[in-house]
Specification:
mainly alpha
Length: about 450
C-alpha cells in the first residue's frame, strides 16, 4: 500500500473539519469502550447488590494502574507511526508496526503475571470493605487473565488511529460492546454468575476486539515478526520508549493518586464506595470527550509535524481547545441539572444517591479546566516531547492529589473535602500548561530532535 498522508486530509484539509472527522469516531468508540465497565456496573448494581457495584468500581481503579501504563507506553508507538506516516516513509511505518505488536504481546504477558500476583495484596493495601473485597478479587483475576488481548486491542487501535483510520476501531468496538452487553445479561440474569459473569463477559469481548483489529491491521500492513527486522528496529524502539515511557509513567502515577483517594473513600464504607463508583461512571462521558479530542490533536500534531506543517500544528491546537472547552461546559451543565436521575441508573439507595450528589456538585463546575491539560499536552506529545508534560502532570496533578488525600483530608474528614482534591488538581496543572505551551519553546526542541533522528 502506498502511503499518502493527504488521503485523510489531516495535513491539508480545513482544520476544524478534520479534527471533527477524526474526533467523532474516536468519541463514539471511546463511549462504547466505556460502556463495557458502565454496563457491568449498572447490571451488578441493579441486579446483584451495591457491594457488587463497589467491587466493580474498585477493580476498575486497580486495573487501570497496569493497563494505563501500557496504554501510555503504546501512545509512543502512535506518535512515532503518525510522524513516519506524515513523512510518507512506508518502510519505517511497517517496521514500527511490527515492533509495536510484539511489544504488546510481551508487555501483556508481563503485566498479566504482575496483576495476578498482586491482586489480593492490592485490595488489602486499599483497606477494601470486606463485603466488597471478595467480588473485587474475582473481577481482578478474570480481567488479568485476559490482559494480553486487551493490550493487543489497545495497541492495534492506536496504530490504526495514527494512520488516520479512526472508523475501523469504532465499528469493531460497537460490535464487541454489543456482545459484551448480551453476555452480561446472559451470565448475570440467566446463569446468576454475579461479578464473575460480568468480568468474563468483558474479557471475551476484548478477545474478539483484538482478533478483528489485528486482522484489519494485517490487511493494510502485513504483520510479519522477523528477527532481521527487529535487529534493525532498535532506533524505532528507542523512539517509542522515549515518547511512550513518560506517558506510561504518568498514567501509573495518575492511577496511584486515584487509588490513594479511593483508599480514603473506602474509610466511609460501602455506601460511599458505591456512590463514588457511580459518579466516576457518570462523569466518564466528560473524560471520553476530552480524551477523544486529546487523541485527535495528538495525531493531528504528529502527522503535521512529520510533514513539516508547524504553523498548522499551532492553529489546530487553538481550534481544538476551543471546541473541547465549549463541549465540556455544555455537558457538565447537563450533568449537574440531571444528577439525581443519573445516579439512580446505578443504584436507588437514598444514602448512595445523597453521597453521589454531594460529590458531583463539587466536581461539576470545574471539569472544563482540564481541557487545557488534555489538549496542550496532547499537542506537545504529538510533536515528540513527552518527558516535560509528564513531569508537569505528575507534580501538579498526581502528587498534589495524593497529598490532598493524605495531608489535607485527615484534618477534617468528609466526602466533600475529599471530592475537592479533583478541582484543585485540574486548575493548577491547567495554569502551568498554558504558561509552558506559550513560553517554553517546545516546538523548537522537537524540530531539533526530528532533524537528528
Amino acid at each position: 500500500m502506498k502511503i499518502d498522508a493527504q488521503t485523510n486530509g489531516i495535513v491539508e484539509g480545513t482544520i476544524w473539519k478534520q479534527l471533527l472527522l477524526f474526533f467523532f469516531p474516536i468519541l463514539i468508540g471511546t463511549f462504547f469502550q466505556q460502556l463495557y465497565n458502565t454496563v457491568d456496573a449498572i447490571i451488578v448494581g441493579r441486579f446483584v447488590s451495591k457491594a457488587a457495584l463497589g467491587a466493580v468500581g474498585m477493580a476498575g481503579r486497580i486495573t487501570e494502574l497496569l493497563v494505563g501504563f501500557f496504554v501510555g507506553l503504546s501512545s509512543g508507538a502512535g506518535v512515532v507511526i503518525a510522524q513516519f506516516f506524515g513523512a510518507k516513509d512506508q518502510k519505517t511505518v511497517s517496521k514500527a508496526i511490527q515492533v509495536s505488536v510484539l511489544l504488546a504481546v510481551v508487555g501483556g504477558v508481563a503485566l498479566m503475571l504482575a496483576g495476578l500476583l498482586s491482586a489480593r495484596s492490592s485490595l488489602i493495601w486499599l483497606d477494601t470493605p470486606e463485603d466488597v473485597a471478595e467480588d473485587a478479587l474475582i473481577y481482578l483475576n478474570v480481567y488479568y487473565a485476559g490482559l494480553v488481548a486487551c493490550l493487543l486491542y489497545n495497541m492495534g487501535t492506536g496504530i490504526l488511529r495514527a494512520l488516520g483510520d479512526s472508523r475501523t476501531p469504532l465499528y469493531v468496538l460497537i460490535l464487541c460492546c454489543g456482545v459484551n452487553i448480551l453476555l452480561d445479561l446472559w451470565f448475570v440474569l440467566i446463569l446468576h454468575m454475579g461479578v464473575f459473569g460480568v468480568a468474563l463477559a468483558t474479557v471475551l469481548s476484548q478477545v474478539i476486539s483484538a482478533v478483528v483489529i489485528l486482522l484489519r491491521l494485517h490487511r493494510r500492513f502485513p504483520i510479519q515478526i522477523r528477527t532481521e527486522n527487529l535487529r534493525s528496529a532498535g532506533g524505532i524502539l528507542r523512539q517509542i520508549i522515549r515518547i511512550g515511557l513518560p506517558a506510561g509513567m504518568q498514567s501509573v502515577l495518575y492511577s496511584f493518586s486515584h487509588l490513594v483517594v479511593q483508599s480514603a473513600v473506602n474509610s466511609f464504607g460501602t455506601d460511599a464506595v458505591a456512590a463514588w463508583t457511580a459518579v466516576l461512571k457518570i462523569d466518564g462521558l466528560l473524560w471520553m470527550v476530552m480524551s477523544a479530542f486529546g487523541v485527535s490533536i495528538t495525531t493531528f500534531a504528529g502527522q503535521n509535524f512529520g510533514a513539516g506543517r508547524y504553523d498548522r500544528v499551532r492553529r489546530g491546537t487553538k481550534v481544538c481547545l476551543g471546541m473541547t472547552t465549549c463541549t465540556i461546559l455544555l455537558l457538565s451543565g447537563l450533568f449537574l441539572l440531571f444528577a439525581e436521575p443519573l445516579l439512580r441508573f446505578f443504584n436507588d439507595d437514598p444514602s448512595v444517591i445523597s453521597i453521589g450528589l454531594e460529590v458531583l456538585r463539587v466536581r461539576g463546575p470545574f471539569y472544563f479546566t482540564f481541557a487545557f491539560v488534555e489538549i496542550l499536552s496532547g499537542t506537545i506529545r504529538g510533536a515528540g516531547e513527552a518527558l516535560r508534560p509528564m513531569v508537569i502532570t505528575c507534580i501538579c496533578t498526581c502528587v498534589l492529589r495524593s497529598g490532598w488525600a493524605l495531608l489535607i483530608f485527615p484534618l477534617a474528614p468528609s466526602i466533600r473535602l475529599l471530592a475537592w482534591a479533583y478541582p484543585v488538581t485540574w486548575i493548577v496543572p491547567s495554569i502551568v500548561f498554558i504558561i509552558y505551551y506559550s513560553r517554553m519553546k517546545w516546538m523548537e526542541r522537537c524540530m531539533r530532535w526530528n532533524c537528528t533522528n
